[in-house]
Design goal:
- 2 copies of one chain form a homodimer.
- The first copy, chain A, is an alpha+beta fold.
- Chain A is built from 6 helices and 6 strands; from the N terminus they run H-H-E-H-H-E-E-E-E-H-E-H.
- The longest helix of chain A has 17 residues.
- The first copy, chain A, is globular, with a radius of gyration of 17 Å.
- Chains A and B meet through strand 4, helix 5 and strand 6 of A and strand 4, helix 5 and strand 6 of B.
- Chain A binds a DNA duplex (25 and 25 nucleotides) through helix 2 and helix 4.
Chain lengths: 149, 149
DNA sequence: ATGAGTGCAAAGGCTTTGCATTAGG
DNA sequence: CCTAATGCAAAGCCTTTGCACTCAT
C-alpha cells in the first residue's frame, strides 16, 4: 500500500503537540523495515547511535500519538510495531522460549464473526473502546528443535 | 463443578517433586475465590501475613506444576489464575486504564472455528504446542466514566 | 532428623526521570 | 529565539535470589 507513513506520523504527533524529530523518524523507519514487533534492545541494535533513554521516550510519544502500538508478549520486554492502520490488521505468534513475535492473519470471514462475538462480550461486561488481541503462544521452529522434549 | 482443586493441586505438585504446603494452599484458595486473575499485590492484600517473596516463589512453583497460569495483561504486573482445567476455558477483558482483568466466554461454535484457524496458522509458521490467547482490550466501566473523553 | 520451604533483605533488570545541553519551528 | 527534545546518569519498581531458620515428612 502507498501510505505515507512519515506524513501520517508527523500529523499525528502534531495533533498531540509533538514534533516529528530525527530520532522519532528513525524509530518509525526501523519499525517499518522490521515488519514485526521489536523490543527496545532490538531497536537500539539497529540504531547504535540512539541512546536508550531516547528510545524509551520516543516510543512512549509515538505510542501516545497512535503511530505505534505497544504489545506485551510473553517475556519481560515490551515490543513495538507500527499502528495497524499504518500496516495491516494481523495477529501474533509468540514463542514462549525465546520471546520471538511473528505475525499472522486470520480469514476475514472469521474476523467478522469474532468481531461481533467480541462486541457482544464487551457490551455484556460494560467495556468500552474495545480492541481485540488474538495471539498464539507456542514454540517457534528454532526453539522446538532446541527445547522440544 | 465438583473438582477437588486442592487434591489436584497436591497431585500436580507431587508430580514435579513439590509439597503442597500451607502457603501454597492459601494462594490457591485466594485465586479460586477471586474467580479472576490477580496480581501479586492483590494476593498479598488478601493475605497480609504472606511475605512477598513467598508469593512470588509459590506462584512460580504452582505455575510450573500446572496448577495456575501466569498471564500478561496490559500493565507491568503479572497476573495469576487457576489453570483452565481447574476452572473453565475463558478469555480476558483487559482495562488499559486500571489494568483490571475480567473473564468472558465465547460461543463454543466460534471456539471450534477459531481452533482450526489457529491450527492452520501455527502449522503455516512452524509453531508447535500452540495455545491461544484471545483477549479484549478496552476500558472497564469505572475507567470509562473517569477517563472517557 | 533432614532436606524442602520460608522470610528477610539485598540485588537484578527493564524502564523512567532529573537536569543540563541541543535542536526544531 | 525559545520551548521542546535529547543525552547522560541516577533512581524506580517489579521480580528474583542468597542465606539462615523452620516446618513437613
Amino acid at each position: 500500500m502507498g501510505l505515507d507513513v512519515h506524513a501520517i506520523a508527523a500529523s499525528r504527533l502534531g495533533a498531540v503537540g509533538q514534533r516529528y524529530t530525527t530520532s522519532r523518524r528513525t524509530v518509525v523507519d526501523t519499525l517499518q523495515e522490521a515488519g514485526r514487533p521489536l523490543t527496545i534492545p532490538e531497536i537500539l541494535e539497529d540504531n547504535p547511535s540512539l541512546p536508550q533513554s531516547s528510545a524509551y521516550r520516543t516510543l512512549a510519544v509515538l505510542t501516545q500519538a497512535g503511530v505505534v502500538r505497544r504489545i506485551v508478549a510473553v517475556d519481560e520486554f515490551a515490543r513495538f510495531e507500527l499502528a495497524e492502520d499504518l500496516s495491516s490488521h494481523h495477529h501474533h505468534l509468540l514463542c514462549t522460549s525465546c520471546g520471538l513475535v511473528a505475525d499472522f492473519e486470520l480469514p476475514s470471514t472469521l474476523e467478522v464473526e469474532l468481531e461481533s462475538a467480541f462486541a457482544a462480550a464487551a457490551s455484556r461486561h460494560d467495556f468500552e473502546r474495545v480492541q481485540h488481541r488474538v495471539d498464539l503462544v507456542g514454540l517457534c521452529t528454532a526453539c522446538s528443535v532446541t527445547a522440544g522434549s
